[in-house]
Every structure is written in C-alpha cells, then in structure tokens.
C-alpha cells in the first residue's frame, strides 16, 4: 500500500458512456473528457477524493477493445484534454486511477492487423496465441480470445515483448499524471506477468497503486503472487445484497469473517456496485435495506469505491446480451445541478457514512468481531487495529424492532427499529 491509498475513496465512472460519446469509433468527435470536470466538485462534496476512470484509450466500441494504449480515444478528446483533466484533479487533490485492459486487445490493434495481413510471417505472431493450422476459421487461422468474444484478442503474456509493451504503457500515463492502474480481467493473466511488469514499473513510480480485477479464488495469495496492492472483493459484494434479499445474515457474517482474513494480508477494494454489475438499488428486493448495505460498506476494512450514480440510487439491470450494459452505463447530465432531487436522500446518506469513515481513518485496516448473529439480525464490531475504541454496527432485517444486548465497551441494550440499522461510535 502507498501512503495516499490509505485515505482514498474512489468515485468510479465509465467515461465513454458517462460523457455520451458515440457507441462506436466512427471518427466523429465526442463531448470529451471535459464533460467530467464539472463533476469533480460533486465528487469532493460526496466525500470521495479519487476518480477511477474506465477505459480512455483509443478503441473500437466500449473501451475494452483497445487499439492504441498510447492515445486518448478520439471520442474523448486528445492528450491535451487528458492533461487538462489531470490539472483539474490536482487543483482539488483528487487522485486518478486508469483502467488498463492488458489481457486482450481489439482486432484493429496494429500488431494484430499485421498478423491478419501476414499470418505466420508476421513479426508479431508471438504476441498472440495463434493456431495457424485452423485454415477453415474465418481469418484463415484461429486465435485465443477473451471468454468467447472473438473481437477481443488475447495477448500472449509469456512474450517478453508484450511485457515490455505493457510496462511502457503504464509508465507513459503515470508520467502524465495517473496515480495508478486498475488492471482489467487480471484474473485471466498469469500472476507472473503482473509481478514482472509491476516490479519494473515500481522502479520509477514507487507510489503507484495497482488494483487487480479478480472474481474468485484466494484473493490474498493472488495479490501476493502478482504484487498487487489490492483486488476487487466480489465475495463481499455478493453477500451484501444476497444475504439481505434472503434474510440470511449468516451468509453476510461468513463473508465478513473471510473478508477480515483477507484484509489482514492485503487491503481489498470494497464496493456495492461497479460498471459490470446490476446496480445495487435494482439488486435489492427491499429498498429499505440500502442503508444496511452502505453501513457495512463504510465500516469494514478496505478501499471503498462508489460507482457513479449509485449515490443517487440510480437503477439499472445488467443483461447477458450484446447491449447488456446499457442500463448500468447511462449518459450523465452536463452538470450535477441537473440531477433529480429524488436521489438526494441517498446522496446524503453516502455523505454521512463517508464522513463517519473519515473520522475513523483506521477503518481501512479494521478488524472484524462478531457480537450477535441470527437470520435477520447481526451485530459486529469494527475493531480498531490501533487499540482504540471501535465501532459497533447493528443490522435488523425483521418486521419487528429488535433489542441488541451488547457488552462492548460496557453492557447496554440498544433497540433498532424494524428494517433498521445503527452504527455506534464509542
């Protein structure tokens, strides 16, 4: 962990859709990165101090089919637009995290275009996993792709030239104001590749922060093997909503115990939503339980991230189809002043809980101690690793008030209303 990352709270957005850019790279300019600047003060008012950007590099469609990692997508502007955004962030003390798509590239990636033209004679044939014997394939050869998506061509991460290329990209943008990288589909890339690349990049940028997208597995071991600072804590994300929908807080308690074990070894990224999943306001079957999700999110160990719009209770469902991300990646208005007042209460709740976390900066490394557990009621202590007073979190999913009998720090009884929650500061 770097010194600054202990205090960062990210606000995440997907730039191409957030700014209303054209859905495909037709050559038409989009509204550009300048559309993000009016939201920086909003980000700060929320209580965040980090901007986690989705892909901003030249691509064919949604940004995850990169064709040039050294160029800003023309739909978002040019290098000077990036530099202006960096300056706007620096004026406000906002950290910047870039989304690096290094597992795969788009079919118009120059090195792959060379392979399409020259096949086995291409100097870049070893940049990819090719099967030149598959002459009946549409291109006259087959290649490994990303999870069955033929327009996403998998890179060969054993190739030293690919390793050098990715390290060069990382350094290029760190030199130009980025503070770190979110590594897309990190789970699909050998940890040895990340270890080699990140180790090389850290020699010139020791304060850079590296977050890996990991869905399943031993998060702590993956983080250690890859030399990542953090990985996405999907286990906790899933428990946050499914345990509430099922009125089964045993699931959440188990996930929190496991989360505590992870957090003792590294600092996870924690979230209730992101650009790849159904929005939390749509996922929850009972809207009264949104506060429970947020109470947990902001009182456990890790680096929190808020997906733009979730703080306004935006709704949207992720579908498994060609346009399945449309609802969860909407265009935002030109300025925050154009937001509906209907989202204001949820925004205020985010502010209050982020304020709580700011008052207790030790929460980034908090321990977990279960105090009470039943199907519909849970009490736990966020343990202060410095030995000072902790926080007690009380959750009640039932239709009746529930009185918790607590003995920390002194014995007392605390009633929580039906479908209510409380955070106790001692």
Report what the structure shows:
- This protein has 426 residues and is an alpha/beta fold.
- It is built from twelve helices and 21 strands.
- It has helices at 15-18, 40-46, 79-92, 110-118, 160-174, 191-202, 219-226, 234-245, 249-263, 280-283, 290-297, 344-359, and strands at residues 10-13, 50-53, 57-59, 66-72, 95-100, 104-106, 130-131, 142-143, 145-146, 149-154, 180-183, 209-212, 230-231, 269-271, 303-307, 367-373, 377-383, 391-396, 402-406, 412-416, 421-425.
- An eight-stranded parallel beta sheet has the order 13-12-11-5-2-1-15-14. It has a four-stranded antiparallel beta sheet with strand order 16-17-18-21, with helices on one face.
- Helix 6 (191-202) crosses helix 7 (219-226).
- The longest helix is centred in the C-terminal third of the chain and has 16 residues, at 344-359.
- It is globular and about 75 Å long.
- The two termini are 28 Å apart.
- The model has no long low-confidence stretch (mean pLDDT 96).
């Amino acid at each position: 962990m770097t010194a600054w990352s202990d205090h960062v709270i990210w606000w995440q957005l997907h730039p191409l859709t957030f700014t209303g850019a054209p859905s495909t790279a037709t050559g038409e300019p989009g509204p550009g990165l300048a559309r993000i600047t009016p939201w920086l003060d909003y980000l700060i008012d929320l209580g965040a101090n980090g901007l986690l950007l989705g892909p901003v590099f030249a691509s064919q469609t949604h940004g995850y089919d990169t064709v040039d990692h050294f160029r800003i997508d023309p739909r978002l502007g040019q290098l000077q637009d990036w530099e202006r955004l960096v300056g706007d962030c620096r004026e406000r003390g906002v950290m910047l995290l870039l989304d690096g798509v290094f597992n795969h590239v788009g079919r118009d990636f120059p090195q792959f275009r060379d392979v399409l033209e020259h096949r086995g004679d291409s100097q870049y044939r070893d940049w990819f996993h090719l099967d030149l014997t598959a002459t009946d394939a549409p291109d006259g050869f087959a290649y490994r792709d990303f999870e069955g998506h033929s327009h996403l061509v998998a890179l060969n991460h054993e190739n030293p030239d690919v390793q050098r290329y990715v390290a060069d990209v990382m350094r290029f943008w760190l030199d130009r104001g980025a503070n770190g990288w979110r590594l897309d589909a990190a789970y699909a890339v050998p940890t040895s590749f990340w270890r080699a690349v990140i180790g090389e990049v850290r020699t010139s940028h020791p304060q850079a922060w590296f977050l890996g997208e990991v869905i399943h597995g031993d998060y702590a071991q993956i983080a250690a093997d890859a030399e990542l600072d953090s990985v996405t804590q999907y286990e906790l994300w899933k428990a946050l909503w499914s345990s509430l929908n099922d009125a089964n807080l045993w699931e959440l308690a188990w996930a929190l115990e496991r989360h505590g074990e992870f957090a003792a070894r590294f600092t996870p990224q924690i979230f209730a939503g992101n650009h790849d999943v159904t929005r939390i306001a749509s996922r929850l079957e009972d809207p009264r339980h949104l506060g429970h999700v947020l109470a947990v999110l902001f009182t456990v160990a890790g680096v929190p991230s808020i997906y733009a719009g979730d703080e306004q209770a935006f709704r949207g469902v992720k579908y498994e189809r060609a346009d399945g991300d449309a609802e969860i990646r909407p265009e935002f208005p030109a300025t925050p002043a154009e937001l509906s007042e209907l989202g204001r209460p949820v925004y205020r709740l985010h502010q209050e809980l982020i304020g709580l976390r700011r008052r207790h900066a030790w929460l980034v490394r908090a321990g977990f101690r279960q105090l009470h557990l039943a199907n519909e009621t849970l009490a736990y202590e966020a343990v202060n690793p410095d030995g000072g007073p902790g926080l007690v979190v009380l959750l009640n999913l039932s239709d009746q008030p529930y009185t918790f009998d607590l003995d920390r720090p002194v014995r007392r009884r605390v009633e929580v209303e039906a479908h209510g929650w409380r955070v106790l500061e001692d």
